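Model the whole thing, not chain by chain.
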Amino acid sequence: MFVSGNLMSYAALLYLAFGIVAAVVLKYFVLSETIRKPKKNTILILGTTKSGKTTLWAYFRYHRLIPTQTSMEKNEVEKPIHCKEKSVVLHLMDIPGHPKLRNEFHDYTPITKGIIFMVNSSTLKSDIQEVGENLYDVLADKHVQKLEIPILVACHKQDLKGSLDRSDVENILAQEIDKLRSTRQSSLQKHDNDHGNNNGDGDDDADETTEFLGFENKKFSFEDLVNHVTFVESGTRYKNEDFGGFSDINEWVVELFD
Amino acid sequence: MLDAFTIATKGGIVLWSKPDSNFTHKNEANDPVNDLIKTVLIQNARTGDQSQRSFTTEYHSVQWTFANDLGLIFVAAYQKILQLTYITELLQKVKKRFVELFSDRLKNAIYQKKDSEEDQVFEEFNFTDSFASILRAVEKKDELSRQDRRNQPRRFEDTNKYQQTMEGSKKEMEALAVDETMSMMMLNSGGRRKGKPMRTWADKKGKKGSGNDSETSGKKGKKGGKASKEMRTWDGGKITAERMRALDFSADKSDGTDTNEEQSLQSKETARRWVEEESMGKLTNDGGYEVANYDSNDEIVDDDEDEDGNLSKISKPTGLFTTFIQTITTGKVLTEADLVGPISKMREHLVQKNVASDIASEICQSVQHDMIGQRITGFQTIKSQIRQSMNRVLTRILTPQTSTDILRGIMSAKSQGKPYSIVFVGVNGVGKSTNLSKVCFWLLQNRLRVLVAACDTFRSGAVEQLRVHVRNLHLLSDDPRKKMVDLFERGYGKDSAAIAKDAIQYATTNDYDVVLIDTAGRMQDNEPLMRALAKLVSTNNPDKIVFVGEALVGNEAVDQLTKFNKALREFTNAQSSRHIDGMILTKFDTIDDKVGAALSMTYITGQPILFVGTGQTYTDLKTMRVSNIVSALLRN
């Protein structure tokens, strides 16, 4: 093929060389992607809409309060933070709380180090069913259970009138989860397409564990979980401290990496 | 006039808004922007006319546009009663302007995934002045055009076309030549003028399809980008240095120099051209201008030029190799032209999977809208990118937004001391009674007492059919001695609404947990029967109205569901207006991977598929797994 002229052969060589380079680059990307991912210090910020997820995310990133609206896409950032001895790079991810989007978090739980679950304490009483289901989905996630991912429930919007305090939120949520674990256990099987190309990923699809949360014959309590669940209070105009109303959340995050 | 204007990221961070939203807990109940996002943008709900891109809430009309490459959304809200015709234009211009001013900063501060320093600084976006001037200009233009329409057709000299004629451009030249600064520039760029007098602009415009300029928001490269800044105010016939400074795109300057009524289109067009050439030859000509400011802008524009360049180069065989490299290294920005082909293939694919054809079109359209302006990088092909987007959109549509936990609902009804009632509706022969008994079986397994109300008083044998089911279920229940399930029937030809009412009454007094109401199958066009159904619903106010539909249904699904929904909405009284709360998809075992009906139904109603019926026995009732449906839909 090199007979056909100098120019042609030059071009052919170039293409060949380029092909090799491309292959190497591709390989590098694929490898680095798989190697890098599990090492991330991923913190997920979850919760229903209007619970303050994006505000918290933005506060962690910019150290100031930024007006937000309903998110359509997740926000993520890798940010170095200082812990007591070392400095770690935090991978902070804010998943939208809309019912159609909030289930995306299942994709990230395998690499998650901790979960911050935001609760709007001022509207919890009326939204309890939705918040409860969301929290149940988080707790019952296969990887959350298996990796025993610690969970921080932030009782946010403490500065608003009529907001519930930490222990109230914990009680109400525990009651709701108690109901949900019985109804979810007895819900119908999921339909699986047994036709078509079954490449053995049938089980991988299941995000939800079949484990019963807590102990049977005992009222649900967050202490019975394998996960370490912490409750803190927060609010944007709550306390005049060094980390705003988010100081307890910040502390929890820092402790997570110690 | 304009109530609110918001510029935000898709992640939900508000970059700029009017009225200025400080960080306060505003009235969340009546926020048109959040309403828009929740009901339209996330759910892919139908908004009447997709191309119109407008949405009405209780008080507001809302229009929006995206800048997909930067992940921004621009929303304008105004009072519903007003008819503002200039909103679309305003959105486009604001978008263009904002992207020009801040795209660098957005890339650094907002979209960078890694922060190197401890604190990334979030600067305010100083856009208020620019916005005000754009708004003023657009409003003025709107007013003028309305006056124009009232008066007479405009003269040829006023049209854009005129500028492109030789005569027109000559006149502009004369006007320009008077000014000293401008004549300098004329010398510098003389070569071009000699070669192709004044044709370049017109050609370029023609090629690029000036009509679409606004669509791609400053992505049009140098020429398009600069040329389309029409919001600037121009007055008088001559360009002075002062006015040139007003052309400056620097961030710190506002444009509200002065808004003289008579905008001379001629000088506008001319100056435009000069600015453009100026920036092209910036290496030699920059001297007289505020270099720093221009620089920052030129960088942005140059980036865009690269991407834009790719597209034009593809058509030339010589640049194939460089294009290839560029595509891989810098990525390629998707345009409508790139997407039309693959998207229509995807549409066909969906239709083959038994998705109703209208719905396939709508979904494909919205995927296309989302993708225009996106960048594909590395070795991704357009096709794989479309599959990805499609996957995301389908998952979004199919994911329920309300709780599907019926047992939880029964539990709360129980605590209030009333039975939980479910009405099964649907067309003839889809399996309402069969699936009712399957649901009944499942409820019995959960030790709930169930009353079945036979409200099909129309078809002969319907009551007997239910009686057989109830007898079977009774024998199957844990403790046949205890009456866990019973049939409530009043024979044929009676008013079904009254029977249902009696059944619920009976259930309350006899301590049943659930009432399952079977109704007669009816075609969606049969108005008397639809009215009867609406009456049943409005007198009994059931907890759930479940639509039973065949998985085999194709285009018909749209008609069935919209008409059932419409009947429920219109024939019930306004305060307690109801709609379908969920669906059961029957005969799901017969369709292999042609699961399109599931998508069609959820798309139309926005409600979840509660169960799928997968066989002949009582246990063949399953819940649907969204990821399964999505992968079946996308499988080749």
